[in-house]
Specification:
Layout lengths: L18 H44 L2 E25 L7 E8 L10 E6 L5 E4 L11 E5 L10 E6 L4 E7 L9 E21 L6 E2 L4 E6 L2 E7 L2 E8 L7 E2 L5 E7 L15 E7 L5 E7 L12 E3 L1
Keywords: Archaeal flagellum, Cell projection, Cilium, Flagellum, Membrane, Transmembrane, Transmembrane helix
Subcellular location: Archaeal flagellum
Protein name: Flagellin
C-alpha cells in the first residue's frame, strides 16, 4: 500500500501580518470601549431617573393631607331693591313746601312701620321729613313740611327708616323734576356661607408637609379659581404644639385651612342654601386631597357668625 504525503512549502502558505491588521484591531477595541462607556452611562442615568421617579411616586402616595372636616361660617347677605324712583315737585325754587312723589319700585313700604326721610345734603345735612307715617303707595305724593330753600343745585337724599335699619334709596339731584334711580340694598336678606374652614392632618407615614407651598383649586357654582397661600387661603395651627404652622410635622398636628369667599365675587362668591363646591388641595409633592362641601338646604335657623357643617 502506498501512502502519499503532501508537500508544504513557504511559497504556498502565508500568515497575514502588517500595519493594516494592527489598525483594524485597535479600532475594534476602541469601538468596544466607547460602546461599553455609553452603556454604563446610560444604565447609570436610567438608574438615577428610576430612583427619583420612585421617590416622587412614594411621596405622592405617602405625603398626603387628610381632610378631617369642613365647616362653613354663616353671614347674612343684604337683599336687593331695584329701581326705586322718587320725584320732588316744587312750585318755585324758593318754595317753603314741596311734594315727594313715589313713582315706582320694588320696595314694599306698606309692610314696614317707619318714616320716609328726605335730607337736603347741600344745606348742612338739614333734615326734611313728612308728617305722614302711613304706608306709601306708588304714585302717591307726600307733602314735605319744612322751610328749606330748594334749588336746582341741591342734592336731595331719600331714605326709609325704622327702629333698626336705614334704607337709602339714592339721590334726587340736578332738578326737581329729574329722578336718580339706583340699585340699593336692605338689611333683611338671607343667610349664606361666607367662609370655608377645613381641618387637615398628615396621612400615616407622611413626612413633613409644607402647606405654604400647596395650591388649592376651588370649583364653585359659577366658576373655578386656583388659590395660593396668603393669597387665597390661610393656615391656622389649631393643634400645633411645636408652633410650626403652616408646616405639618407631626401626626398629632391639626391645622385649619381657611378660604374666604367674596360677597360680590364671581368664582369665589358666597355659597347659597343647597349649593356645593369642590375643593382640591395639591401639595408640593403632587399628592391631592379632594372634598366636596355641601351647604344645607336651609340656613334660616342660624345667626351671623354661626358655624355649620358642610
Amino acid at each position: 500500500m502506498e501512502i502519499s504525503v503532501p508537500e508544504f512549502t513557504r511559497d504556498n502558505d502565508r500568515g497575514q501580518v502588517g500595519i493594516e491588521t494592527l489598525i483594524v484591531f485597535i479600532a475594534m477595541i476602541l469601538v468596544a470601549a466607547i460602546a461599553a462607556s455609553v452603556l454604563i452611562n446610560t444604565a447609570g442615568f436610567l438608574q438615577n431617573q428610576a430612583s427619583e421617579t420612585s421617590q416622587d411616586s412614594e411621596d405622592q402616595v405617602s405625603n398626603q393631607v387628610l381632610i378631617i372636616s369642613s365647616i362653613g361660617e354663616v353671614a347674612e347677605v343684604d337683599g336687593e331693591v331695584e329701581n326705586v324712583e322718587f320725584e320732588i315737585d316744587a312750585d318755585s325754587a324758593d318754595a317753603d313746601e314741596a311734594d315727594l312723589e313715589y313713582l315706582s319700585g320694588d320696595f314694599d313700604f306698606e309692610s314696614d312701620d317707619g318714616d320716609l326721610i328726605v335730607r337736603n345734603v347741600d344745606e348742612d345735612e338739614e333734615f326734611v321729613w313728612t308728617d305722614d307715617t302711613d304706608p306709601v303707595t306708588e304714585g302717591e305724593s307726600i307733602a314735605l313740611h319744612d322751610e328749606v330753600d330748594y334749588s336746582d343745585d341741591d342734592d336731595i337724599e331719600v331714605e326709609w327708616t325704622d327702629d333698626s335699619t336705614v334704607w337709602d334709596f339714592g339721590t334726587v339731584d340736578d332738578s326737581f323734576d329729574d329722578t336718580e334711580t339706583e340699585e340699593v340694598t336692605v338689611e333683611d336678606g338671607e343667610n349664606q356661607i361666607s367662609e370655608i374652614s377645613m381641618t387637615v392632618m398628615q396621612s400615616p407615614g407622611a413626612d413633613e408637609i409644607d402647606l405654604s407651598g400647596a395650591s388649592i383649586e376651588y370649583i364653585g357654582p359659577d366658576g373655578q379659581d386656583t388659590l395660593t397661600y396668603e393669597d387665597g387661603f390661610d393656615v391656622i395651627g389649631t393643634q400645633d404644639e411645636d408652633e410650626t404652622a403652616p408646616v405639618l410635622t407631626q401626626r398629632q398636628d391639626r391645622f385649619t385651612i381657611e378660604i374666604g369667599l367674596e360677597e360680590d365675587g364671581e368664582d369665589l362668591r358666597y355659597l347659597e342654601e343647597g349649593e356645593d363646591a369642590t375643593v382640591r388641595i395639591t401639595t408640593q409633592s403632587g399628592s391631592e386631597a379632594v372634598t366636596i362641601v355641601n351647604v344645607p338646604q336651609s340656613l334660616s335657623s342660624y345667626d351671623t357668625g354661626d358655624a355649620v357643617e358642610l
